[in-house]
User: Fold this.
Amino acid sequence: MEKVLVYGSGGRDHCLCDKYIESRHVEKVYFAPGNPGVKYTNKGRRGYIEQVPIRDFKAVREFCLENQVSLVDVGSENPLDEGLVDVLNKAGLATVGPRAKYVQMENDRVFTKTLLAAAGVPMAEYRAFHDAETAKRYVRNIGYQVVVKANGLAAGKGAIVCDDVTEAEAAIDTLMVKKKFGKSGDTCVIEERKYGNEISFFAYLDGEHFLPLRMFARDYKPACDPGDKETIKLLGGNLNTGGTGCCCPHDLATPGLSNRIIREIVSPTVNAVYNKLGWNYKGVLYFGLNIDEHGDLCVFEINVRHGDPEAQVILRKLQTDLYEIAMATWEGTLDEVKQKWNKNCYVDVIAMAGKARSPSGGWFKAYPGRYGEGYKIEGLENIERGIAIFYSGVDEHPERGLVTKGGRVLHVVGSSPVFEEAVDKAYRNIERLAFLDHRNNNENCLRYQKTIGGVQ
Assistant:
């Protein structure tokens, strides 16, 4: 039996741990640096998943060698960009995740868009700018709505959807002048805003073959429900998030659409990665897609890892042994893997940090704006059997126990063969939870979007 280490600390990474321990090949999963939420799960209490609070890459390498870890899955973009995979590979450790050089697919939008254009992959019209005033003149003159994007890594929040020129100019200031995401805003990409349905699609690459996961998801990115004027006013129009929920399968999912996505987008992209760039890429590619009312597909982003929260529903639906997929990714045998999917539908509703008192007596507005931390998480003992809880922004307090530490705190995943029942289960259970604001008479400061599972 094998040991696996998942490097990360969020809900996606907890979900990866949960999926690996279900493998018939795996006896133990280490979660580094992890989060203390796993200790509150059955698998954590029984020692199947163990948090290892180490961050230093050399320490991770030595831990893996000393504990005979057979595979490391690096879940998030920053450690990939900083070269964790390179450090582990030099020690002969098997990994899922690209080398630092290959993270350019995510941390340089201009590079990726140039590559995709040459490969004939459909994309929205775009221009890149290094100067804020030039970018503003451009949005004043083009006459259509845009999305303003940081060129580099921004924790999944670097794309600002704009309704008009005023919002576009403000977005340019946010990225290029105020430097909300640091050096990632040195260059910004201004892209035509597309309307239609978002699709999150994933593929594993082993350096020679690729395995497209043919069960794609719908992600919900707005910070609040459409028409929720109160929350929009509260957040001051700051509605850009890393996702507030997700469902799988996507309501548009058909074998025919999967084939089109693979033929028109995934295959030419992978071909460019292998043959034009010559990269020995071993890991996941995430394709953020749009399909419009005419059925036309285009790419709006590519990432080098599983999406969050998409992983929390796609991996739950995956029936194929994840460890076998991961080892085939490392060994170059993805062409031998047969993917299988169970019959359930999965809906993830995210419990987020809401409006709460600040220490000064003012207010934290709520995620994705400024939010407080340290609120006691209550109600976990009331969650129904069969509901998956994935822990993300959590910590432990000596008096309050498990508390919030982040904007997206918990993922509540309901499942059922009937989609509507999966939606109902997720909402029925998130309503049993509370984040107690200790500065405001223990008022519940948990918030969530109420239309996950609908079409936006």
